[in-house]
## 1
Amino acid sequence: MSMRKILIALSIAAAATTSASAATIWTSAGPGSDVAGACTVDFDGATCAAVSYGTAAGSITTGSVGGVTAQPPGSTGNYLTVGPTIGTPVDITIDAGADYNYFGLLAGSLDAYNTIAFTLTDSSVLSYTGSQLAAAANQSATGNQQQGIYWNIFLGADVFFNQIRLTSTQNAFESDNHAFAKVPVPATLGLLGLGLLGLGAIGRRRA
């Protein structure tokens, strides 16, 4: 790992609370997950039996609307968009016993005001802003609508989540091809070979 990547990881870790949890974040070419056995929700009909989406907010749509939403590069057909105009947040609920510790998504135009929050099975919350995700991949959270990246988040071998909350305080947080999996430690996945780009230690807070 380069010194720049180490410094990025340390700067993220500095923002953590005393009960921090380390997650492994890397990017891949996409438009889908490279993790073997991952179940993918593509918003065009492919679903995961253990995963359900709240319908009170957000929108499953296609195409782009100026000032409201932009389809992520690499996304085809429908995608999920979250924001004040469309509705926010969107909650993703995982059935008990699924034991998912990996989440992947194709995300376009990441912004600092986009947030992914994992509620873990011990009721603690692990949260990432768009800025933190972008920093882990040596990117900037500038809302670049030409930028489509597949983000992979591995929480740990024994760190499982039962909910994901996608939030955006401004328009918008667009994503597609959500992937879920229970995976072993990163070494057995060959994550370094997939191009590990960052490590983030983000604070947990008790719900």
## 2
Amino acid sequence: MLLRPYLIAISVCFATISNKNFHVLSALMVEMSSDVIDALQVHNQARIKAVGPERPSLIWSESLAGAAHTWAKHLANENTLKHSSSSGQGENLFSRIGKGKATFAMAATAWVDEMPLYQGEAIPVGDFEAYGHYTQVIWPNTREVGMASAKSKQGWTYVVARYSPPGNYVNQTAWS
């Protein structure tokens, strides 16, 4: 399937009043692929449906996507799925082997599909992998996401998502 880029216009307007005239100083145009748009939609629909306080929609971060790309390439080179030891960003991982592209939306859907396994408990020390991807997606304080993928010589595709601020703080719940 050919992914057509869509142009998303984000207007950042600065207005000044001078002799009763308004002057628009700038506007910003950002190009996003349909896969990025679909992945953001999966993330943001999960955030809307989540129990607890209203969560702002996540916005795409090219900086986080760059960090995700660096780690995805590392995973593909090593042909292994393991979390980065870097701090300051949340991280979700997804891998798939075989024909067909592993899309960002496919990865995000897999993470959101953990939703029934989370019942609002505080994040424990240690193992919470059954629902930890989902809780990162809906973490109330998270505002930005960036994603990237890379394919190994062995045919595995690794998808990495990075989040800021990170979530999954021990002894805190994703529902408050």
## 3
Amino acid sequence: KKAKDMKLYMVSLWHQLSVNGELQSVKLCHCMDVSSFRFFTRSTINEHMVFGCRTLSTRVEKGTKQSITLKDVPVIFHIYVRGDGLLCIAVTDNEYPVRVAFVLIQRSIEEFESRVQGRWKQITKDQTSADPPFLKALFDEFQNPRADKLQNIQCQLDDIKGIMHQNIESLIERGESLDSLLEKSTDISNSSKQFYKQARKANSCCRSW
């Protein structure tokens, strides 16, 4: 696939923490571009991506890298959770190279830490920081990677090992379902929940998006 045919939709950083013995996650910053989707579906896609990030960010073990698919949703969530609870997620289409996504994740974490040091550990509520300059620059660089840029990235890939590939169903606890999690989510509006139900019923979610 040509670089221009690959899509990077979102990169976001989160803090995974324990609150009264329960794992939670708070959003630190993000950058997103859903302009390639149909206009009337963009807010729904936006909300579903945030929902997916929040749901997965508490279900991936610390110290692991995973690429996770969601049933009926044409995107992949690439996620790395550090041992100290700092994590980064890149959301791409199916054509985007997995290993390149993890280079983006690695660089995003490095750039973020160089700016905030350890202060992120004190953050316990969602931040509204969208498109911080350092993350926007990385997002743009990896959104349309030139052939020579992709070739240069290959040199960094030896450091990106142990990536697991799963679907979200394998991460959901017994007794839970994706539909029930979505229904309880505060990241998704009622109109978006209704859109999702109708699309699932028609088995045409991917076509609608």
## 4
Amino acid sequence: MWHHQPIEIYLAMKYLLNRIILFLLIFVTLASCSGGDKGNSNNGHTGSSDQDKTTDLQLNISIFLDLSARIMPTKENPNPKDRDLEAIQAVVDFFRKNMKSHGAYKANGKLRVLFNPTPEDPEINTLASVLQVDLGTMDNRQKKETFDNIQDRFSTALGRIYDQSLQDQKWVGADIWRFFKKDVSDHCILRDYRNILVIITDGYIYHERSKQKADNRYSYLVGPLFQSLGLRKNVQWQSIVETKDFGLISTRSDLESLEVLVLEICPEVNHPEDEDILEYLLGKWLKEMGIVRFKIHSTDLPVNTKANINRFLAQPI
């Protein structure tokens, strides 16, 4: 009985050694696979990487205001001024929070309100000069002052601009089409910034200095044009648009580094179907100009508009 013991011990040790070797091989294999997956994740998960980079970028936000007759109170829309101001305030609040997240020393964001063409009223122009913030040109003390008063500063100046515009009723409108053609790159796009353009307009694009036509493309979008093309009260309007290649004239396709948020689309009272037409045509135009990320929202309760703004601004490309 005892003379078999060394053989049994030998076999037991051999079995144990084989198990250890097998365990080590499995461990090494799993570790290798894990390392490989990790490498693939870093190489292929560009969305997360790009998002992190975009999130770290400083903000360059431009707010384009359409000071046309759309800001006149009506029975259907009694407080367009208040809606606009609350929307702008939501953008200002987001900018302020972004300042805080970067800290006084590192915050170099930019925020501005734009008009095109420039209002003729000198008082409005003076007030508009207050609505320009460039943290990159400020020392820490100035940044702290801006952080403390930017909300009141924008609210007060914009309130006076709207009141003055309503009093004068000199509706110069907004030349949105020409702004994108000639000025958007200079005013709204900076390298190594997150470039965002917020446009507040009813969606109808028109200015007396921009009346161009090329086949079925125009530099304006107005109700009578929709009527003449048979788009209104026609469930087949989208088919007509595509068949005739109707829309705004596109003069560029290089705006991939610009994000665009359009707010307060508001169709004519007797033609609610214009809402869908406007949103579709504006979206088509933005895509043709190379804009990758955009959202178009109709006028809504301020609480809903604020939610739309925060959702867009908080989710970079």
